[in-house]
Amino acid sequence: MKFEAATIKDIAKALGLSTSTVSRALRDSYEISEATKKKIKDYAVQINYRPNPVALSLKEKRTLSIGVVVAEIANTFFSQVINGIESIAYANGYNVIITQSKESVEKEQMILEYLTSRSIDGLIISVAAETKDFGNLKQLHEKGLPIVFFDRVVEDIDTHKVVTDNKTGVYRATEHLIKNNYKRIAAIANNANLSITRDRLAGFQKALADHNRPINEDYIKYCDHGGLIIEEVEKAVESLLALKKRPDALILLADKITTETFGILREKNIKIPRDIAIIGFNNSNYTVLFSPSLSVISQPAFEMGEKAAGLLLHLIESKRAVTDFQQECLSPDIIIRESSQK
Amino acid sequence: MKFEAATIKDIAKALGLSTSTVSRALRDSYEISEATKKKIKDYAVQINYRPNPVALSLKEKRTLSIGVVVAEIANTFFSQVINGIESIAYANGYNVIITQSKESVEKEQMILEYLTSRSIDGLIISVAAETKDFGNLKQLHEKGLPIVFFDRVVEDIDTHKVVTDNKTGVYRATEHLIKNNYKRIAAIANNANLSITRDRLAGFQKALADHNRPINEDYIKYCDHGGLIIEEVEKAVESLLALKKRPDALILLADKITTETFGILREKNIKIPRDIAIIGFNNSNYTVLFSPSLSVISQPAFEMGEKAAGLLLHLIESKRAVTDFQQECLSPDIIIRESSQK
DNA sequence: TTTATTTACGCAAACGTTGCCGGTATCGTG
DNA sequence: CACGATACCGGCAACGTTTGCGTAAATAAA
């Protein structure tokens, strides 16, 4: 099954002209007479001619498309970021290729392989939870591929980054729990590799320290796949519940972990917030419909996408190598609902 | 900022060979001596050579990528379908370009313009709610672009289609409401243009008829943007609530409409299911966490994606024009929870 | 009328790759 | 020793497009 489209050659042949004349006419060159231009343009419309972007890319060495790698598009946070990216990209004539790593280092590697072998002009990425070795990303960056990180950034690659102020966000959320008189606050975090995990835990521990609470390592659990595997969340929750001094509040440091923990606690018939209070990261607008309604730390996802795309386009279109990289840090919203107050 | 990658020419020049020799060596042609092959391959590894897919595409007239158009990736149903598509596509060496129409006919048009101007080998699409005129899709199809429809299909374009058995699903859901003794059952549907709207309403009306219930047009409301605009859902709900004979049950015929109606009713402090029962399409796994938990019609989304991708790849790779098109019809799951029974 | 300038177009190369058609050694066979 | 066969490699064209350069004809200036 073939899908043959009209080319500039077809037009040239049909009209007895050269391809260069046709090309120039379509681009409104002054070198072509009005009469010829009209003839060519009319015929182009008639046969519904579209320039071949593949040929253009080969010649211009650019594809006018940018690659986006997220953990999972079903995650509301990421889909909102993508919406932000698209809004800027489309407005500037760029297309967006969306891909998901599913938190897998192998899949991420595959995706990068495909995206970067010259089919994108730049990359916006939030790295997979599993990934420890950023050698290939670093290599791509050194070779000159414009990269912007968002959310989960790689600290030792020097480029633009867009993040939420995770530390402050978690600090305030923890403080909220403390002020509501919760005594034993535990945290379930994403993979310890991730920048967001470090920042969020830092906020958690600082809040505890500032309020003279002990920091107990037993009260911090990790889900290495960001909650993508339900069992790891179950294991984390159960090990917390099994503690002799059982926590009376949980702070959940990743979107998927938040909703899954909620589901697990309901399943176990543990009353929220009476038995255990919870607050956690989440960008879904469904959480208000939960029972009890869920207190969340919500990130300015759309804005993050816009910012990241803006920075990337700037990188792509700047003639000379950029050396002055910025780290945008946006404030999260803390939305207090029923799940975190008695 | 440039991102220059190694080419076959670079290898040829460095080793004093011709590009054709290098090309053949890399593809393990018998015409090249083992010694030369080794030299070339070693050097290729050393400079991290990757074939340029853009050049390949131009030459081979195929891109090994397929385009996917959905209404909104944030919609769980669509993201599950995408996961299904990806699983099949990747396994067959194809890449997937994900795009969203946001139910807008203009955006859909733009996307199709980009995707089809020779940068994809085939298309999987669920059309936007707004779209009435399928002329361009039809044209693309006639020109030979392999297309597979899923979910929202276009009846008068003859190609493979993958759908849920919407009529039966809604029939059974409506029957469930009837059996639970609900008397005045209303429906809120998506745009009347859509195939799914027709099928779902058909199931609704047949169930009513089969149980000797009157079919009242006032009890059917439409949201032309599939619930993407919250106000249209509010308007639909309010006009139903304003009826002298107010409905005691709602059946919601689109994913987004379901969750939004739920939110609106809660906002209005209308008790579910005491005041009004609801059941509706939705694929999110959060609905079980709602209060009350939500009864839903859930579609086999992942499987739909797999099927659609399989059919598309078959279309793409078949040598001769395919004329025998099939319509796969998968059964939905009806999950009864608290929101639809007293 | 001759010369200079403009107008309007064609030719060819290039982007990176593959494949067809060659060609030149080297080898084996008679 | 002559011949064909084989092994190994290069040249060229092509995919669709743009662009620098060349050039003929048409027009303007002298």
Q: Which two chains touch over the largest interface?
A: A-B, 62 and 62 residues
Describe the main β-sheet of chain A briefly.
6 strands, parallel
Query: Helicity range of the residues of chain A?
Result: 40-55%
Order of helices and strands of chain A: HHHHEHEHEHEEHEHEHEHEEHEE
Task: Tell me which oligomeric state these chains represent.
Answer: homodimer
Q: How do the strands line up in the largest sheet of chain A? A: 2-1-3-4-5-11
Overall average pLDDT of chain A: 94
Helix count of chain A, per DSSP?
12
Instruction: Report the portion of residues of chain A in β strands.
Output: 15-25%
Radius of gyration of chain A: 26 Å
Summed up, what is this model?
Two copies of one chain form a homodimer. Chain A is an alpha/beta fold.
Structure description:
The structure is a homodimer of 342-residue chains. With 342 residues, chain A is of the alpha/beta class. The first copy, chain A, is built from 12 helices and 12 strands. The first copy, chain A, has helices at 8-15, 19-26, 34-46, 53-60, 76-91, 105-116, 135-143, 166-179, 195-210, 230-241, 255-267, 301-317; strands spanning 65-70, 95-100, 122-125, 147-150, 160-164, 185-189, 220-222, 249-252, 277-281, 295-298, 327-330, 333-335. In chain A, the strands form 2 sheets. A 6-stranded parallel beta sheet of chain A has the order 2-1-3-4-5-11, sandwiched between helices. In chain A, strands 7-6-8-9-10-12 form a 6-stranded mixed beta sheet, with helices on both faces. In chain A, helix 5 links the parallel strand 1 (65-70) and strand 2. In chain A, helix 1 crosses helix 2 (19-26), helix 5 (76-91) crosses helix 12 (301-317) and helix 10 crosses helix 11. The longest helix of chain A has 17 residues, at 301-317. The model of chain A has no long low-confidence stretch (mean pLDDT 94). The structure holds a DNA duplex (30 and 30 nucleotides).
